[in-house]
Amino acid sequence: MDKISMKTDIYLGQGALDRLMEWRNQRIFIVTDPFMVKSGMINMLFERLHESNEQYIFSNIVPDPPIEIVTEGVEALGAFQADRMIAIGGGSAIDAAKAMKIFAQKILNQHDMPFVAIPTTSGTGSEVTSFSVISDKKKNIKYPLVSDDMLPQEAILDPELVKSVPDFITADTGMDVLTHALEAYVSTKANDISDALAEKAIKLVFAYLPRAYKDGNDLEAREKMHNASCLAGMAFNIASLGLNHGIAHVAGAKFKIAHGRMNSLLLPHVIEFNADYKPGYGKEESNAAAVRYAEISKSLGLSAPNPKSGVRSLVQAIKQLQKQLRMPQSLRECNVDEALLEEMSASIAEGALKDGCTATNPRVPVVSDIVGILNKMFQY
Ligand SMILES: NC(=O)c1ccc[n+]([C@@H]2O[C@H](COP(=O)([O-])OP(=O)(O)OC[C@H]3O[C@@H](n4cnc5c(N)ncnc54)[C@H](O)[C@@H]3O)[C@@H](O)[C@H]2O)c1
Ligand SMILES: [Fe+2]
């Protein structure tokens, strides 16, 4: 038996930010990153918040937020006695705010205050998920936290906020969306509802990510990618993820590669592993994951006369997309040292096997499978 809950009210489309005009007499704790303050984007909030509200801005968030910043935030949150919390920024700001919220509830016995997530990247889907990823920078480890208490009450998806995202971050975060949707689609926990969400997200990424990358001011493409990110988040909140994220959490922290970029580097190799794909034109039996990937190929209008061809078409389409987005396609291009990779491969593999995301992967990996994937990723 599956249960699907939809807790988050979603305000979307141009003008969605006007939702902020409706609150009165609130003490609002705002979590964001320094870019939002320096660039003046934070003023888009202040222009809409009514003067009867009082605000506190916590703007120390850095990418892949470390536990120390979460602790600082919990202290500030306790001192301010907020009625409401807003996280505005990329996945890092939203994830850090989620962790602050549950730790404040647990440690300070704070009430369960309304939490509003306003993403400014189209990537993590964190505005609709029970997940938060926090880093331990000393140990170079990322911890995925999972709790329904972290689900935002509201998500505001206004494409105006994403226009300023630089092209390379548009590419990285967009590939995170694609990875979420594909992993949810082949997850062992996938069902008809998560499939529908994932399928739509995948179609939107292939149609609109190149446009959003090419012209950041293309508001239609930005809006579609913002929606795709949210759809993919909803899909994996139901079906969870897989080995791609399992490896990305560990390897991304070790090699200091942005989350979406790490996922992108892994994606062709993890698909081939899951589908047990071997090159050549043999007609050997295909596994269930290969059949699922071929369904996606068909829905994208790619050649998929049989599962094997469907998998090949999907992998080719992903590599083509990476080229369009001028993304690196190997660890070598990301300046990862070959000797360091060799030294770390086994421990990365062990970490990936323990990561919660790996549990729902369609094919059960062992250490040597993951080491093999990492080696292939180095060469491309
Ligand atoms: N909670 C989840 O379900 C989930 C899922 C996937 C990834 N994550 C985590 O989310 C984090 C990554 O989030 P992200 O990819 O959104 O990146 P991010 O939040 O780390 O932001 C990346 C960079 O983009 C900048 N930025 C953000 N919005 C901008 C804008 N509108 N204009 C210009 N620059 C902008 C930020 O200042 C930052 O420098 C990682 O820690 C990852 O592990 C969480
Ligand atoms: Fe992700």
Strand order of the largest sheet: 1-8-5-4-2-3
Structural class, by secondary structure, is alpha/beta
Task: Give the DSSP E fraction (strand runs of 2 or more residues).
Answer: 5-15%
Specify the biggest β-sheet. Answer: 6 strands, parallel
Structural domains: how many: 2
Number of helices: 13
CATH class of the largest domain: Mainly Alpha
CATH topology of the largest domain: Dehydroquinate synthase-like, alpha domain
Q: What distance separates the N and C termini?
A: 41 Å
Return residue spans where pLDDT drops below 50 for at least 5 consecutive residues.
none
Helix content: 40-55%
Reported CATH architecture of the largest domain: Up-down Bundle
Bound molecules: nicotinamide-adenine-dinucleotide, fe (ii) ion
- Rounded radius of gyration (Å): 20 Å
Mean pLDDT: 95
The overall strand count is 8
The gross shape turns out to be globular
Could you name the CATH homologous superfamily of the largest domain?
Answer: Dehydroquinate synthase-like - alpha domain
Strand and helix order: EEHHEHEHEEEEHHHHHHHHH
In words, what does this structure look like?
By secondary structure, the chain is an alpha/beta fold. It has 2 domains: 9-162, Rossmann fold; 167-379, Dehydroquinate synthase-like - alpha domain (Dehydroquinate synthase-like, alpha domain, Up-down Bundle). 51% of the residues lie in helices and 11% in strands. The chain has 13 helices and 8 strands. The strands form 2 sheets. A 6-stranded parallel beta sheet has the order 1-8-5-4-2-3, with helices on one face. Strands 6-7 form a two-stranded antiparallel ribbon. Helix 5 (167-186) packs parallel to helix 7 (219-239) and helix 12 packs across helix 13. It is globular and about 70 Å long. The relative contact order is 0.11. Bound molecules: nicotinamide-adenine-dinucleotide (NAD) and fe (ii) ion (FE2). One of its GO terms (molecular function) is alcohol dehydrogenase (NAD+) activity.
